[in-house]
Structures are given as structure tokens and as C-alpha cells.
């Protein structure tokens, strides 16, 4: 059985940061080939600027398409797309248009609302109640997930990196996220 995990980082949240580093290790330990989409060259001051956000999305999509161009997703039996922030939008768009969409499962770390503009299959989401990228307590992410039947783990006092500023609380959160990620990966 061929298995592939593709990592879609955020704008400033690289694949070496905790959420993506440990989920990548879990996938590798479960026998997944791991492919990391690295991108950069984003415009400055993106938060709150729709035009710059769309430009960043286009940059990330172009780089993801370039990196995935030599990969035949239909040759894999099980595919994980693990995304963080803008990477969740890129992962969702690629999953929705892929001929292997029925085999793609998504792990969505701090997804943005635009992620849910696309149709995709099985997924799990993790979001912070104090995430300024999705409106803090006014976040619609848990409600959107509920409507779509996607398990959504909401962490109180957690920001866009699922951190609160309290080291031990953050480590506890990271551990909980990785346990749920591991269960989802199987």
C-alpha cells in the first residue's frame, strides 16, 4: 500500500515548527512518504489585507503545483494533506480538484475561512479561540466544521499557532493535538 503525506506550511509557520514537525514525524512513522511544499516570497503585512492574502494564496498555489507536478497522486492508496493556515486553503483547493480526491484526507491546523470554499472529503480541524486571523471569539470555523461534519478541536486562549503564552499549557495543547492527529492518521 502506497501512502503519501504532503505538508502545506503557513506563511510564517514553516514545516519545522511544532505542529508540522510532529505531524510529519507521525506520518513518517506510519509509513507515509512525506513531501514538504516550501514556499516564500510573500508580500509584507498580509493580515487584514484581502488583496495581499489573495496574492499570497496564488504564490503558494504556484509553488505547490510546481512541487507536486512530478507526483502522480492517483498512484497512492492513502493521501494526507497536512496544512497550516494559508496551507489549509492550498491543500483544500488541490484536494477538491484532484483525480485522487476520494483518497485524500486533510489535517487542518488553524484553517482560514477560505479553506471551506472548496469541496473535500474527510478532514479534522484544530483552531484557537484567540486566533486573530479568524476573528478571535467570533470565529466561524467551529460552526463551519460542524455544518460540514468535520471534527473541530477548539482550544481556549490559543492563538494562530495554537499557543497561549504559557509554556506548559502550550506543550499540553501540542500533545493533545498530536494525539488527535495520530488517531486521525490511523
What distance lies between the first and last C-alpha atoms, to the nearest angstrom?
14 Å
**Global morphology:** globular
Helix/strand class:
alpha/beta
Total beta-strand segments:
6
The CATH class turns out to be Alpha Beta
Hey, roughly how much beta strand do the residues contain? 15-25%
Number of domains: 1
Biggest sheet details:
6 strands, parallel
Helix and strand pattern: EHEHEHEEHEH
Number of helix segments? 5
Task: Tell me the radius of gyration.
Answer: 15 Å
Full CATH superfamily name: Alpha/Beta hydrolase fold, catalytic domain
> What number is the mean pLDDT?
93
Poorly predicted ranges (pLDDT <50, ≥5 residues)? none
Strand order, main sheet: write it out: 2-1-3-4-5-6
For this structure, the CATH topology is: Rossmann fold
Describe this structure in words.
This protein is α/β, with parallel strands linked by helices. The protein has one domain: Rossmann fold, CATH 3.40.50.1820. Helices cover 38% and strands 18% of the residues. It has a six-stranded parallel beta sheet with strand order 2-1-3-4-5-6, with helices on both faces. The radius of gyration is 15 Å and the shape is globular. The two termini are 14 Å apart.
Q: Quick recap of the structure?
A:
The chain is of the alpha/beta class. It contains five helices and six strands; from the N terminus they run βαβαβαββαβα. It has a six-stranded parallel sheet with strand order 2-1-3-4-5-6, with helices on both faces.
